[in-house]
Amino acid sequence: xxxxxxxxxxxxxxxxxxxxxxxxxxxxxxxxxxxxxxxxxxxxxxxxxxxxxxxxxxxxxxxxxxxxxxxxxxxxxxxxxxxxxxxxxxxxxxxxxxxxxxxxxxxxxxxxxxxxxxxxxxxxxxxxxxxxxxxxxxxxxxxxxxxxxxxxxxxxxxxxxxxxxxxxxxxxxxxxxxxxxxxxxxxxxxxxxxxxxxxxxxxxxxxxxxxxxxxxxxxxxxxxxxxxxxxxxxxxxxxxxxxxxxxxxxxxxxxxxxxxxxxxxxxxxxx
Length: 271
Fold this sequence. Notes:
The chain is mainly beta. The chain has one domain: monomeric porin ompg (Porin), CATH 2.40.160. The protein has one helix and 15 strands, in the order H-E-E-E-E-E-E-E-E-E-E-E-E-E-E-E. It has one helix spanning 2-16, and strands at 47-61, 64-81, 84-90, 93-100, 103-109, 113-122, 131-142, 155-159, 162-165, 170-182, 189-202, 207-218, 227-241, 244-253, 261-270. It has a 15-stranded antiparallel beta sheet that branches. Strand 11 (189-202) and strand 12 form a beta hairpin. The longest helix has 15 residues, at 2-16. Mean pLDDT is 90; it is low at 6-24.
């Protein structure tokens, strides 16, 4: 748990420094909330923290039940050059509770670290904030944590966030992803591919609403894991100021392979 304490102290230090941030107007480039990924990047010399304060997922299967709760799942996005950012993510703490045949087993673990780069390839800002935007995100996960919160081994993949802004009020987002994902038993890797898409509505300058669907193809050798999953999501983002966003969201499994429900809340802060 010492790593979690160090992470918490670092988080408090960074969040406390928000009072010293300048007051220049800024369009917040938040990837939270939702299933898709925003294609914008952080400006050079700035840092953005996006933290899932709590994330609860419920999975049920023939009377068995698994509750997974993640705390403080955070990604730090660091602008390093024009249209480039470095990304470091970590899940400092999680709990997995399995209930089966009247007995319950709980495990408390630290999660893995994810590192990556993000490169904006096409920016709608170059054409008056309307039209196509495109980015690419290669990433790798380092086995810092332990199963079942961490994977216990490395993985790697890439995302291709795409956005098309129709006007000030409406934007369509699409995010394909491909990954060499760890097998469920922790030995070897397999193909995991997904596609998330949906519209994002700007209800006002401070409030946004997003509805999405994600399709996931999992080629895990385990027959219980392998197959196609479909997930529906609804999320809300509220900006009390131009450098902060609070969010709330829920995902619902649309078939038997997908988790039943996920509920989460988080915060984004730009420095």
